[in-house]
Amino acid sequence: MKKLIALVLTVVLAAALVLSGCSLNGDGSSSGGSKVVDPDAEIEVVFYHTMGANLRSVLQKYIVEFNKIYPKITINEQSIGGYDDVRDQVITELQAGKQPAIAYCYPDHVATYLRSRKVIDLNEYINDSEVGLTEAQVKDFIAGYYEEGRQFGDTSKMYTLPFSKSTEVMYYNKTFFENNGLKVPDHWFASGANDDTSLEYVIKKIKEIEPTSIPLGYDSEANWFITMTEQLKTPYTQAVDKVEDRFLFNNQQNMDFCDKFRAWCVSGLMTTQSIYGGYTSGLFTNTSANDSGIVIHSYISIGSSAGATYQCPAKSDDGSYPFEVGIAQIPQADKSNQKVISQGPSVCMLKQKDQKVNDAAWTFIKFLLTSPEFQAEFSMTSGYVPVLRSTFEMDAYKEFMSGANTNKEGIAALSAKICMEQEQSYFTSPAFVGSSDARDQVGKLLVAYVSAAENASEAELKKLFTDAYDRCVTLNK
Amino acid sequence: MEDNKDIIQNNDVPERQPLDRKTVIKLNRDIGSKNQLKGWLYLAPALLLLIIFSFYPLINTFRMAFLNGYNGLAIVGGESFNLGVENFKTVIGYVDFKQCLKNTILLCVVTVPISTILALLIAVALNSIKPLQKVFQTVFFLPYVTNSIAIGMVFNAMFTRVGLGDLIQTQGIINNILGLFGIGPFNFVNVGSSWGANMFVVCTYIVWNAIPFKILVLLGGLQNVNKQYYEAAKIDGTSKVRTFFRITIPLVSPMLAYVIITSFIGGFKEYSSIVGIFGEGMGPGGNGQMNTIVGYVYNMLPKSNLGNASAASLILFAIILVVTAINGYVSKKKVHY
Amino acid sequence: MADLKNYNLKELNVRSASRSQRVSKIVGNVITYIFLAVMAVIVIFPFYWMIISSLKTMDEYRANVPTLWPQNIYFENFATAFSKANLKDLFLHTLLVGTISTVLSLVVTVLSAFAFARLQFKGKNVVFGLLMATMMVPGELYTITNYLTVSGRLPFVEEPIQALDFTNTFAVLIFPMLVSVFYIYLLRQTFMQIPNELYLAAKVDGTSDFKYLWKVMLPLSVSTIITITILKMMGAWNAYIWPRLVANDQAHQLITNGLRGASFTDEFGEVNYPAQMAAVTIVSIPLFLIFVFLRKYIMRGVSRSGIKG
Question: For residues A288 and B67, which has the higher predicted lDDT (pLDDT)?
Answer without folding.
Answer: B67
